[in-house]
Amino acid sequence: MQRAEVTDEVWAALLALSAGKRAGPRAGWPPEARAAWALYAPLAADGRGGPYLFAQVGQSLDGRIATLSGDSTAISGPDGLRHLHRCRALADAVVVGVRTALGDDPRLTVRLVEGPNPARVVIDPRGRLPDDAQVLRADGVRRIVIQACRRPRPRGVEVIELPAADGWIAPAAIRTALAGCGLARVLIEGGGVTIARFLDAGLLQRLHVAIAPLIIGTGPSGLRTAPVTRLADALRPETHVYGLDSDVVFDCVLAPAGSARMSRWPTLQPEPIAASRA
Ligand SMILES: NC(=O)c1ccc[n+]([C@@H]2O[C@H](COP(=O)([O-])OP(=O)(O)OC[C@H]3O[C@@H](n4cnc5c(N)ncnc54)[C@H](OP(=O)(O)O)[C@@H]3O)[C@@H](O)[C@H]2O)c1
Question: Which CATH code is given to the segment(s) 48-277?
């Protein structure tokens, strides 16, 4: 595990890279600053050659993203929360499922670090999100609802209607629609169902799992992907691990940009973290 320290200089360089400028690590940076660059530069750099979708989930040691009652605000420690806000600042858009929007009423803004606010997107196939939800408030940031029904939204909110099969909208159609809106670099923020849909569809290029040292006991799990019966069939992404003081981030490299479907990794793929688990 490498300790990552996002100094002001590192963050300024990452924001510059994200804005399309030439930026890179400086020769004199210490290892912690270089580690921070390695963690965030893929998010800052990609998206210009086509859609780049990444997810981040903050979870407990026992893999929960909320309590049974839906309390999820304090799962991540202070550095995990700053990490989430950095991920938002580097994205063109942040996407949540309607259950997160209903349960948490999140603002989805960048408040804990310097940086731009991404467009806010809610997947609400059945039109359940109330008009006064915080994600829809008019604050100069684009607000988009993806739905599978006819449902008028407040003035200024963009609506994307997509077909659903058995209640589910194809994640690839969502990716295409967002790219059509000029939103190529997209953070899928949660909850677990929403991330799992994109993961199972092989559309995530990167997955950050930020683990905080608390044990909840029960509650929704972070990644509710299609289960496997044999460990040989488990997804074993190439993973780099970064210490952010209060939280540990597993940076999982998934499908290369543009691939339509990621096959589960072959068992012969060398992967140090999975090997030590086994
Ligand atoms: N710790 C964290 O990092 C974190 C982050 C975000 C959220 N959370 C927590 O996660 C919990 C909510 O997560 P969740 O997994 O239950 O729900 P969720 O992912 O927030 O929302 C799922 C719902 O969104 C809609 N949806 C998402 N993708 C869709 C698709 N491809 N097609 C059609 N509909 C789609 C569906 O709405 P319908 O139900 O209307 O069909 C689906 O049931 C909350 O407790 C929240 O606090 C934690």
Answer: 3.40.430.10
